[in-house]
Each structure stands twice: as C-alpha cells, then as structure tokens.
Please model this.
Amino acid sequence: MSVDFSTLENGLRVVTHDMLGVESASIGVWVGSGTRHESSRNNGVAHLLEHMAFKGTRRRSAREIAAEIEAVGGHLNAYTGRESTAYFAKMLAPDVALAADIISDILQHATFDQIELDRERQVVLQEIGQAADTPDDIIFDYYQAAAFPGQSMGFPVLGQPENIQEMSSDTIRDYLQANYGPERAVLSAAGRVQHEDILDMAENLFNSLPSLKGPVTKQPANYCGGEKRNEADLEQVHFLLGFEGFAFGDPDFYALSVLSTIFGAGMSSRLFQEIREERGLAYSVYSFSAAYSDVGTFGIYAGTGPDQVSELVPALCDEIVEFASSVQEEEVMRARVQLKAGTLMSLESTGGRAEQLGQQTLVYGAPLSVQELVHHIESVDLEQVKRAAKRVFGSQPTLAATGLLKKLESYDKICNRLQL
Model:
C-alpha cells in the first residue's frame, strides 16, 4: 500500500494510492477553482460549467457519456466548492482507463452546445429552487453571505438565478480558459491502481488542457460577521451561529478540529448532551469548521421550535462562554481518538481516499502521509484547544436564521451574552 506523486511537464500533478485488497478504484480530477474565482456578474458559472461538462463532447453525446460508464457498472459525478471543483468516477479496477478517458474528454473537449445549455440552465434553476425550499440547506448560504458580505467568498455556490438565466456559452468557455489550466489541476486515483499506469494515462489523455495565460486571481476574504434573518412560515427555526475560524496552515488548524469534535460532533459532544439530551431543545444540533486558503469559519447549527428558540440561544451562548475555562484533558483525549479513527477509516473508501489526496495536493502542493495527519492530531493538547477557543469565540459572531423568528433575540443581545 503506497502513495505516489508525480508532476507532468504541463504542470498536471498525478497522485495515486494503491490500496491492497480492493477490486475497485476511484479516479478524478480536482481543479483549484470554484465560486471564489467568480464575480458578481458571473456568479454560478463554476457550477454551471460543472454541469455542462457532462452534456456532450466532440466524441460523445451526453447520453453516451452516461451509458459508457454505466455499461461497466461504474458511476460518474462532480461537485463545485468555493475553492475547487471535482470530476470523478468509481468503477471496477479493469475499467480505470475508460473512466480516465471520459473525464479527460469532458474536461478538454466539451462542446457547450446551446441547446444543451438552454436545457441545463433550467435544471440548475430547479436545483436553486430546491435549495431555497430546504431550510437546513439554504441557511448555510445565508450564513456565508452574512459572514462575507459583498465578497465572492459569500456568493452562493449554485449562483444567482438571474445570472444563470442570462449566462452564455462564451461566459462558460472564458471561465474555463481562465481557471482550468493543468498547473491548477490534480489527477488523483485510489484503489487497485498502479502509479505508472495512471501516469501513462495522464500523459496520453490530458495533453489538451491549455496552460493559463496569466495568474489566476481571487478576491481576498474578509470575514466581517453580522446577521441574516429570513422570516418564513416553517415548523422549525433553523439557526446558525458562527465565528471566524482558521485557514489551512494556521498553527491552530488541528486544534480547532479537536475543539469542534468536543463541542458538537457525536453523541458524547457537549452540544448533543446539553441541548438535546438534557434540555430536549433540538433533534439536530452540531458544530462544524470549514477551512480555506486564507480564512476559515466555525459554526453551530440547530433546528428548534419557534417557542423553544428563546431557550436555545441562551443555552448555546452559555456553552460557548464556558468552553475555554471548562474543557478537560479527558475530552481532548477522546476527541483526538475520534479524529484519528475517522482519518484511518477513511482509507477504506477508494472514493474518499482519492478526494482526500486530490484536495491535499491542491492545498499543500503534495499529499500528506497518513503518519503526518495522525501526528498532527495526536499533537493537539489541552492548552492548544483553549487557545483556539479563545481565538474563535472572541471573533465577531455571524447569525443566520430562518423560520418564525419572533422569539429569537436581537443580534446585539446575543453578542452581549457572548461577552463581546
């Protein structure tokens, strides 16, 4: 079982993990471009490009793309994030070459046919509408927009409906040509694969990605904090309270992961025990941390009744205020074990491993070894967790809420509870 890493002459990085004892493989391309590389005028283009890549190439129709991979029992998918976009497939090991050929075809030879574009823009508009009708989904868009107002970091990944309605094939092509150079991409494969075989495929298949003409720019992220309230006739209030977190590479990055695990991950976490088990105020309550190249966020989500929100918010604020002074060594040890176990168990999934290697290479320039990851987690101590808590919970809060909000306290009152 080994991880190998190479860089082609055109700048494309190739990383593989030969996983013993599996019969399948996952392969994909991770591109270091996403919503952050958009403007207000073309917001949504990264996501629409991801859709349109599957809608026909010079060699294959949209139907043929789907039929070829499914004919061998595989499946093909993609996603768009704020700083990256991924195109990937999972199949039995003998069919890796087919999957690599399809992925290289859709990334280099998509036609962006106008008829297909007109049809697919309706699909994306339906996706936007579905998200708007899903309060525990749209609440994260509200949160991001409030935390980073007027910035690309705060734009919705799916885009604005008015932009999608007007977006042309030329806009999509321009975005691709400005952001999808081989030097900004990683070909990652995991499972029953051999590095030399994947390297040969990469050299033969990914030779039509033109190098970028200039540096790719993105708007610096400036976390501001604030609030977004959306009054809606819902059964629950969906509530998200967040703070400024840490970027990749921050010395407290791993400490924040441990903090989040203690605070709101799993049934033994403080939030689950206090908010759900002791008080019965929420069915779903958890914390999360999200890291980016130059900024991060830390948030707490809860869904509660319109009458219960008046009790929920003070309880959450009390947990936040008390955390740094009350966290115990036993909790840190338990959280480290949880994170370590999750890291090691992720190695059993070819798809998860390919994604992990692709993202790590985009962020750090090369994949991290499992030993490095485990060392970082095991090195987090109680004092680091306390320091991370003071840094995070001392930042300006971001509040997002949707539902019947009559009993939700004002932003200023919540800040006072947090002693800010």
Notes: The longest strand covers residues 296-304. DSSP finds 16 helices and eleven strands in the chain.
